[in-house]
């Protein structure tokens, strides 16, 4: 049976693209001393609606232990706050602080600049197509799995 080059597998190509994207994003937000995970958390919380830990974990693509560790770091820096849910005191709701809002505003500029570099390399049409393909792929995976 002939060996197939690993670069022909979609899983490999997605992992490679993800790795490159993470490296570029990490470099673009390094000045704020936050990780990609911190950025995702702050970006979601920036609407000032507050989120339960369960909802936040789903939205920012982190398992509960990883989310808790990241929230602990953000709380210690004063970027987010935890509070008991008014409707169910057993649940914890996370809110962004004023300092967190200031940080996410600065991060947005860096993340948008990173996105612009990628779009510049691909072109706006291909970037739009890639986003649509990835959205469709995610939807299909969720529907079937």
Automatic annotation (TrEMBL):
Keywords: DNA-binding, Transcription, Transcription regulation. GO terms for molecular function: DNA binding. InterPro entries: HTH_MarR-typ, MarR/SlyA-like, WH-like_DNA-bd_sf, WH_DNA-bd_sf. Residues 7-139 form the HTH marR-type domain. Pfam families: MarR_2 (PF12802). It comes from the Bacteria. This is DNA-binding MarR family transcriptional regulator.
């Amino acid at each position: 049976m002939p060996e197939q080059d690993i670069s022909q597998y979609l899983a490999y190509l997605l992992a490679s693209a993800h790795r490159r994207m993470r490296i570029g994003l990490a470099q673009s937000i390094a000045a704020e001393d936050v990780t990609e995970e911190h950025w995702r958390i702050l970006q979601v919380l920036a609407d000032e609606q507050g989120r339960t830990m369960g909802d936040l974990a789903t939205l920012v693509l982190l398992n509960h232990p990883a989310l808790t560790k990241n929230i602990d770091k953000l709380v210690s820096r004063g970027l987010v706050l935890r509070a008991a849910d008014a409707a169910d005191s057993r649940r914890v709701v996370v809110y962004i602080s004023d300092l967190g809002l200031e940080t996410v505003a600065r991060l947005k500029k860096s993340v948008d600049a990173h996105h612009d570099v990628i779009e510049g390399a691909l072109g706006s049409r291909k970037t739009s197509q890639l986003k649509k393909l990835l959205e469709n792929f995610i939807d299909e995976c969720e529907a079937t799995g």
